[in-house]
Amino acid sequence: MTIKVENILKLSANDLEHYKLHLACWNGHEQPLNVYLQGWDNWVGWNEWRGNKNDFNRGYIFCLIQFYHESNKWLFGGIFRVVKRLDDWADTEIGYELELVDLHKELIGRLVIDFPRYQGMRGRSFLLEGYYKDFVVSEILKKSFDGINFPGYENINVDFPELETVFKYQKNDWKGALENVKGVYVIADKSNGKKYVGSAYGDFGIWSRWAVYVGTGHGFNDELTKLISENGIDYARRNFRFSLLEYRSMRIDDNEIRNRESYWKEVLLTRGQFGYNKN
User: Fold this and answer.
1) Over 80: is that where the pLDDT of 120 sits?
2) pTM to 2 decimals?
């Protein structure tokens, strides 16, 4: 049975005329879902941004966050009242002072909406009344979304901000899977295609090794350390993607892990000009 959003939210037809719809999508640098997960102030700041166009020229903003792991899905990001439009936005890129309203605050981060973005819907801001009736409830999560579930060892392919979220919320499914395996992983730099192949062995699993990257951005690897020292950890947030190439039981001999690490360095040409491995 299909349940429309209009059947569960308390917005009348007259209310809609006072709202702009904000479809928060990838801006070329960041996914708004990752920004939301990094902290509430970050998410509010995303909404307060303004470009040349005065997108939010009504009293309220109905915010949806692109749930980019699933096609045509959006996470409810709250309803904001536009308290003030700022005159110095051209200098600061902060165009609005916003205030979260209480209406449906309990559904922030929980209500997932099914809405296929129409062809030709460019930009981020639209008249809410033109699309509200098309919103369908996909699901209501038991708790506020705190990052993707563990996808299986063979399907790990996460950007640095997603990995930060996994550790921030200490997601048990990820931790339980990764803290008890050794393995070989690859970090890809999306800005230039270079890769770094690393491994976790000894008494420390993949979980402990990746925790070091989350804390430093570079994991104390020589070339990555230089890169992050020069550009800051935001470079890792913009460009690094993690994947697991192989995993083994903690009982396996460490030499096998080292040999497999060396193998993947050869296969992916990560020593020299094509990668960040020094040896």
Assistant:
1) no
2) 0.86
